[in-house]
Design a protein that fits this description.
Helix content: 40-55%
Structural class: alpha+beta
Number of strands: 11
Distance between the termini: 37 Å
Number of helices: 12
CATH architecture of the domain at 8-115: 2-Layer Sandwich
């Protein structure tokens, strides 16, 4: 700890939020102002005087604002650093400066506010969780097979059938002024799903019953989302020719269908589908247990999460969501009330930070570490799982991640994952079925 200073300091604290009001005596500030004035006189070019010979009063008159700012730029960080060191305070972020009052000849009076890292202790790890039952039913398998069947559907000619709901009609569409006179407004040739057209709504009424080669005319109002903004929402005459009619043909769910999907027969396909469903349900059940344990850990070991960290996390969440919207072609500025979004996500942000801090402390208490080899192995695993990843050299990726700082970020993630594994191993986990604990452990290592 540094020696006490001659400054007057008022220190108040609300949890991890600190406020320092610091007053530097006028005599000390006068020394700095005099030194800065001398420095300006040495460098200043003033008419009628050689460098360094102008009267100090003239230097103060001409460069007073610059001298004041120069003194503040040097004194504020110097004084603050000394007072923080004297009190062994380590701000999480740059302190917020407020209420700076100073004029030459007076005291320097200013206030700073900042957060410090909370004292995190994990004293209660006697946790319990309930794991959802994982049970694959025939109904689940049939539903999954139905989805696979839908993906295997193909369009085939409808023959002599008339257009009906859910058929696919290739329409030659011509738009004209509603009185039918004048030049064509637009032409289009595309497939329309009967009964589901949105941009030219009248087609939903006219297509049913039509056959290939037939044409019809009708007046309709184009939808507001019609691709041509000039025509959107306008009333027009639509002339449509049903050029081609198709139906969606779905494959039979049989042995041949199973073989198309790489299985020997339908029974093997059902087994594979059941395994996939079970794996998915197992992952969800594990996630449910993890969420319960983290919530229990947080409630049993309260953490005073600094506001600055919450705001930083909300910034990250907002940026990530805005990028997702932009990738979907949605303008993030118009799509959301971002103030309401931050307010809604505030609790989630605070909880996730508290859980991360508790896992970090748990890892520290139990000396859980992750070496470089483990991090590189995880990178290699992720690369191999990504599309085309095997072609990318892991060594160059590791080097890039070290340079960007994401290598150590992954190390922290893996360390927290191991801490969570430790927590799970020492928790009591029951099953929703009411059976005895499926996973249990003692509180001792």
């Amino acid at each position: 700890m540094s020696e006490p200073t001659t400054n007057e300091v008022e220190h108040s604290q609300d949890g991890v939020r600190h406020t320092l009001r610091i007053v530097v005596p006028a005599a000390q500030m006068a020394e700095r102002v005099d030194a800065a004035t001398q420095a300006y006189r040495t460098r200043a070019k003033m008419p009628g005087f050689r460098p360094g010979k102008a009267p100090l009063s003239m230097v103060r008159q001409q460069f007073g604002k610059d001298i004041r700012q120069h003194v503040l730029d040097n004194m504020l960080p110097e004084v603050l650093s000394g007072e923080l060191e004297a009190r062994e305070l380590r701000p999480l972020d740059s302190p917020e400066l407020a209420d700076v009052q100073f004029e030459p000849g007076s005291d320097l009076d200013f206030t700073v506010r900042f957060d410090t890292h909370p004292d995190v202790e994990v004293s209660n790890t006697d946790l319990k969780a309930t794991r959802p039952v994982v049970e694959v039913t025939d109904e689940m398998i049939d539903e999954a097979l139905g989805e696979l069947r839908d993906r295997g559907g193909r369009l085939v000619p409808a023959g002599d059938s008339a257009a009906a709901e859910d058929m696919f009609a290739r329409c030659e569409i011509t738009l004209l002024p509603k009185d039918g006179k004048g030049k064509k407004l637009a032409e289009d040739d595309r497939f329309v799903r009967v009964g589901h057209e949105t941009t030219v709504p009248g087609l939903n009424d006219e297509l049913p019953g039509m056959r290939e080669g037939e044409d019809r005319e009708f007046v309709t109002t184009l939808a507001d989302q019609y691709p041509n903004a000039i025509l959107a929402g306008k009333e027009v005459l639509c002339r449509v020719v049903l050029a081609e009619l198709k139906v969606r043909q779905l494959p039979e769910v049989d042995d041949a269908f199973a073989k198309d999907l790489g299985q020997g027969n339908l029974a093997e396909l059902r087994d594979r589908v059941a395994d996939d469903i079970r794996a998915h349900m197992d992952n969800n059940a594990d996630r449910a247990v993890q969420d319960q344990l983290l919530e229990s850990l947080r409630l049993a070991n309260p953490v005073d999460v600094p506001e600055s960290l919450i705001e930083r996390r909300l910034d990250e969440m907002s940026k990530r969501f805005a990028n997702d919207l932009a990738q979907q072609g949605i303008d993030p500025r118009q799509a959301l009330d971002w103030e309401a979004f931050r307010k809604e996500q505030r609790g989630t942000a605070a909880n996730s930070i508290a859980e991360e801090m508790l896992l970090d402390r748990l890892a520290q208490d139990h000396e859980i570490e992750v070496d470089d080899d483990t991090v590189e192995e995880e990178i290699r695993r992720q690369v191999e799982q990504s599309e085309g990843g095997k072609e990318r050299p892991v060594a160059s990726l590791v080097q890039q991640m070290r340079k960007e700082g994401s290598f150590d970020g992954l190390r922290i993630t893996l360390r927290r994952r191991l801490a969570l594994d430790h927590l799970r191993a020492h928790a009591t986990i029951d099953s929703e079925s009411g059976e005895k604990p499926s996973v249990s452990g003692s509180a001792e290592d």
